[in-house]
Amino acid sequence: MSAPTHLEGHLPADHPLSPRRQYRDLPLIGRSLANYPVKDLWETDFARLPGPLARQRRRARAFAEQHLVPVADELDLAAHLPAGECHPAALEVLREAGRQGWLSYFLPRPLGSMPWRALPYPPIWQCSLIVEEFSRACGGLMLLLSAHHLGAMPLLLSGNVRNILRHLGPVYRSCERGDPHLVAFAITEPGAGSDVEEGEGAARAHPGVVATSTTGGWLLNGRKCFISGGDLARTATVFAALEGEGMESWTCFYVDCAAPGFRVARTELKMGMRASGAAELEFTDLFVPHDRVIGGLRRGWAINRATLNASRIPVAAMGVGFARAATETALDFAKRYTLGGRALIHYQDVQLHLATMVAETRAIRSLVWQEARGAWQPRQLNASMCKFHATDRAQVVCEMAMDLLADHGGLHERKVEKIFRDVRLTRIFEGTNQINRLSLMEDWQDQLLDVDQHMGV
Ligand SMILES: Cc1cc2nc3c(=O)[nH]c(=O)nc-3n(C[C@H](O)[C@H](O)[C@H](O)COP(=O)(O)OP(=O)(O)OC[C@H]3O[C@@H](n4cnc5c(N)ncnc54)[C@H](O)[C@@H]3O)c2cc1C
Question: Would you list the domain boundaries of the chain?
Fold first, then answer.
């Protein structure tokens, strides 16, 4: 049986009525106004990126294909490691990522690895492009690499150049030498998850990690949970309330994870993103000197909110990466799997299904880029909306891939099963999607209360 020359239900490319055939016969000006030769489904968007960002994205994809894809399965299936142990394959990814600059790109050279030409564009935009490529390759390794930037974000956002040079400088240099110094971000507490992501809850919350004043600094006591990369981090930005005060006293401390009083109590065996550990951290009279208070005493809540506003757009980009991976996997399956003597792709209802997946994925990518492009000062309303909508729709796309693969969808080797487990977590972390909806409303409330009193309703 010869290979089909076109999809069933559509004209062959050389048919006299085919748009592509007609396109060839158009005069030059007509051809320049039309665009029929479609290259890669996802590349057409990238043609619209500024050159330096397009280059970063290409490098990220090459790194992901070369270093993340080959070990993604092994790390997903690896036995749950005890706290503090790193799988050799994950360690190698971290080392190489550090050497290639993927752990230090929030500052330009020579402080970091961001190319100078990328400097005119918001770092969140660059980060979103990179995160999309890494998520497409492996959710767990993407989180392992991305949580580090989340951890370092309070140092950057504190606006204190001294902090950046003193603390972040050595972190970046170590990473670039191939000696990965990871930084973790610790806000979640056993009794406070959403409460530390949302104002109204915070106003009522009882802080679990408390800082007590002592000679030369502070003593931290309490526990943080679900801290990504907390098992491997060398330093962490830890948020704590001052003793005897409430959440309004929240302060960001830059903690040395090798200091006495710091302990990784355990790591969770979680449903997805398994290459990244979610650690419970325990602090017992952990000493933090005064000069490791980031952004000033009682400024933690503002730094936390600014950090989340910056990081929620890249979380939305994770959704794009997962939706893209699911769509690509479903497409590949539809081309290879035969039913009733013909490949699935020839059934028009399968084509409708795939077209919806492509459109959903491209739509959330447009949303992410739109928000990321203006993200010099990411606003809560925009970042939260982008995060919940992109990750919700990404989950729908992954669900559609599962539908298409049917019984094959549940098999590990078909990949969709892993993507499905990974994407679900993006709707929980950085604030559940419900909390992000409330964050949108919180930021918008002034306008919502601004009603015309004369209407009398
Ligand atoms: C894979 C992973 C990685 C993570 N990494 C980190 C990390 O690096 N650092 C860190 O600090 N944390 C991290 N977290 C924690 C994460 O941010 C929290 O899990 C998240 O904020 C939700 O908190 P919670 O699980 O305590 O849920 P809860 O706060 O206990 O919420 C339970 C339910 O109640 C709902 N809810 C809560 N309040 C309201 C309300 N006011 N109105 C309506 N509904 C409400 C929530 O939406 C949710 O459905 C991670 C979590 C996961 C799963």
Answer: 44-181, 184-297, 302-443
For 184-297, CATH gives 2.40.110.10
Atom 30 of ligand 1 has which residue's CA nearest to it? 193
401 close to 413: Cβ distance less than 8 angstroms: no
Among 352, 241, 380, 236, which Cα is nearest to 300's? 241
User: Which one of 187, 432, 439 would you pick to mutate in the ligand 1 pocket, going by the greatest count of ligand atoms within 8 A of its CB?
Assistant: 432
> CATH 1.20.140.10: does it fit domain 302-443?
yes
Q: Which CATH architecture has domain 44-181?
A: Orthogonal Bundle (1.10)
- The rounded Å distance from CA 259 to ligand 1 centre is 28
Question: Ligand 1: distance of its center to the CA of 226 in Å?
Answer: 9
Nearest CA to ligand 1 atom 6: 227
Condensed to tens digits (0 to 9), the pLDDT of residues 147-196 reads 999 999 999 999 899 989 999 999 999 999 999 999 999 999 998 778 87
Reported as a single tens digit per residue, the pLDDT across 323-336 is: 999 999 999 999 99
Q: What DSSP letter does each residue of 309-321 carry, written as one string?
A: HHHHHHHHHHHHH
User: What pLDDT band is residue 17 in, cutting at 50, 70 and 90?
Assistant: confident
430 CA: nearest ligand 1 atom: 17
Task: Answer whether 44-181 and 302-443 agree in fold.
Answer: no
Query: How close are the terminal C-alpha atoms of the chain, in Å?
Result: 72
- Strand 342-343 vs strand 235-242: parallel, antiparallel, or unpaired? unpaired
